[in-house]
TrEMBL record:
Entries under InterPro entries matching the protein: HTH-type_LysR_regulators (IPR050950), LysR_HTH_N (IPR000847), LysR_subst-bd (IPR005119), WH-like_DNA-bd_sf (IPR036388), WH_DNA-bd_sf (IPR036390)
Protein name, entry field: LysR family transcriptional regulator
Chain ranges of the HTH lysR-type domain: 1-53
Stored PANTHER family: HTH-TYPE TRANSCRIPTIONAL REGULATOR YBHD, NITROGEN ASSIMILATION TRANSCRIPTIONAL ACTIVATOR-RELATED
Length: 291
């Protein structure tokens, strides 16, 4: 099942074998054995691509749930043994890392629980829900949208609000200006890639003002968006905590819109929460919650 899920997620035998640290022929043999056992074909394989068959698509949610249940059982047994070790996998909005907020919490957590490893990921907000549901993540710090698939399977605890500001480089002709958002109609924007929460907020806010932002540059990295905007290549929308830390200089614009987003602690309520995960949740709640 683990091998099947790895191939299903990457749709590439070579990458799946590398991730599993096994030889590709051994992986192919195991998949063929699984297909013989189930009496179905799980993948259509050609020299150019690998795709899931209807049977493979039907099996995938069962397989991910099976693996998540096994992982939960192992974690639970570890907790009962009194082990103060383990791994917690966390997805966090990039702004929490770029501003230093989450790293400070993780330093304190490591001092308290040196036997626990924290795997930190920076995923777009929407895909984190699927990863939480199938056990690839223990918790997420993200802007939550109740319209996402599987959102009803999550527990959501709002932690704090972030102010969002439009910024330009200090040498930009609009630096220090007060502008109506509509005045940015012809300006190029430096934006996050499609799928990012801040990209959605940017597009929605501009649409409310009656225009579609003209995207001149886009990136998936907060540092890159900041650097491009600082260089004068366009207007960017960034969280205030990112703007306020050291880095390429930025000049916030005063506009006629006030934007904020809520960062929440998100978990899958059916998944077992390890002692290590609960300890990290408690520390995050103590250090980052503003009420």
């Amino acid at each position: 099942m683990r091998y099947f899920v790895a191939v299903a997620q990457s749709l590439n035998y070579t990458r799946a074998a590398d991730a599993l640290h096994i030889a590709q022929p051994a992986l192919s043999k195991q998949i063929r054995q699984l297909e013989r056992t189930l009496r179905v074909q799980l993948f259509d394989r050609t020299s150019r691509r690998v795709v899931l068959t209807d049977a493979g698509q039907a099996l995938l949610p069962y397989a991910t749930r099976i693996l998540a249940t096994v992982a939960d059982a192992q974690t639970h047994m570890g907790d009962l043994s009194g082990s103060a070790e383990g791994r917690v996998t966390v997805s966090a909005q990039q702004s929490l890392n770029a501003s230093g907020m989450l790293p400070r919490v993780l330093v304190e957590f490591h001092e308290r629980y040196p036997g626990v490893d924290v795997e930190l990921r920076e995923e777009f907000a929407a895909p984190t829900i699927a990863m939480l549901a199938d056990g690839r993540l223990d918790l997420a710090l993200a802007m939550f949208d109740e319209t996402w698939p599987r959102a009803e399977d999550m527990t959501v605890e709002p932690l704090f609000d972030e102010e969002l500001v439009f910024v330009v480089g200090p040498g930009h002709r609009l630096a220090g200006s007060s502008v109506a958002l509509r005045q940015l109609l012809l300006e190029p924007f430096v934006a996050f890639n499609q799928g990012a929460g801040l990209r959605q907020i940017l597009e929605r806010t501009c649409a409310d003002a009656g225009f579609q932002p003209r995207i001149g540059y886009e990136s998936g990295a907060t540092g890159s968006v900041r650097a491009l905007a600082s260089a004068g290549l366009g207007v960017a929308l960034l969280p205030r905590p990112v703007v306020d830390v050291d880095g390429p200089p930025l000049a916030p614009l005063r506009t006629d819109v006030a934007l904020r987003r809520t960062i929440s602690l998100i978990r899958a309520y059916e998944r077992y929460q390890s002692a290590a995960s609960r300890a990290l949740v408690d520390l995050i709640r103590d250090r980052l919650s503003h009420g």
